[in-house]
Amino acid sequence: MSAKQKMRHVLDVLGDMFPDAHCELNHSNPFELTIAVLLSAQCTDETVNKVTASLFQKYKRPEHYLDVPLEELEQDIRRIGLFRSKASNIQKLCRIIIDKYGGEVPASHERLTELPGVGRKTANVVMSNAFGVPAIAVDTHVERVSKRLSFAKPEDSVLEVEKKLMKLVPREEWTITHHRLIFFGRYHCKAQSPQCPVCPLLDGCKEGKTRMKTGTKTKNNTKKPKIASEG
């Protein structure tokens, strides 16, 4: 079976498992999504949604984030990891959006990655979910699953994983595949204690087969994800 044939099988299985996979960060517009994804680095979507429930009521537009002292914004997001640096990046980001883009989030991957706190992953999420441009954002779940299923090597960087997935997955399926890989990694192929005994993709997972043979429950041979620091 070729790599593309294997990927087609994986895509079909994931489609059956998670037909309605979607972005789980609550948002109502591109600006809110950008803020939510920025906050999600090294933090769970669940925690981000709890914080943004009140945050997005208080701050509706970029200028609203600049109307308060930095210390006040820090307190508003203090439940989020790295809240001080994220608060600073949010205010810097809002200033640029106002000064350069008329208060609107730019619908350009290149321009998005120039914003403070916005890396390639964040830009891909915003472009695909807010602007409908196909993209595969590689977060810790996508990276882990891709390496476990041997679509990428253990030593591959986040960018290398993304490029390999883009070659194997049809472009029109990039966005939904991103969501399904996240759901698969978050709810099934977890970092610790993955559900190997009931995994429909076990035949294509060397690590899973080894775990089943040895009875190992928590072994994880993939490298520590780099995505958290990329935004």
UniProtKB/TrEMBL annotation:
One biological process term in Gene Ontology: base-excision repair, AP site formation
Q: Which cofactor does it need?
A: [4Fe-4S] cluster
Q: How is the cofactor bound?
A: Binds 1 [4Fe-4S] cluster.
Mention one GO molecular function: 4 iron, 4 sulfur cluster binding
Q: Which InterPro entries match?
A: DNA_glycosylase, Endonuclease-III-like_CS2, HhH-GPD_domain, HhH_base_excis_C, HhH_motif, Nth
The protein's UniProt keywords, in alphabetical order, are: 4Fe-4S, DNA damage, DNA repair, DNA-binding, Endonuclease, Glycosidase, Hydrolase, Iron, Iron-sulfur, Lyase, Metal-binding, Nuclease
Query: What is the recorded function of this protein according to its Swiss-Prot or TrEMBL entry?
Result: DNA repair enzyme that has both DNA N-glycosylase activity and AP-lyase activity. The DNA N-glycosylase activity releases various damaged pyrimidines from DNA by cleaving the N-glycosidic bond, leaving an AP (apurinic/apyrimidinic) site. The AP-lyase activity cleaves the phosphodiester bond 3' to the AP site by a beta-elimination, leaving a 3'-terminal unsaturated sugar and a product with a terminal 5'-phosphate.
| Designated name of the protein | Endonuclease III
Q: Which organism is it from?
A: Paenibacillus arenilitoris
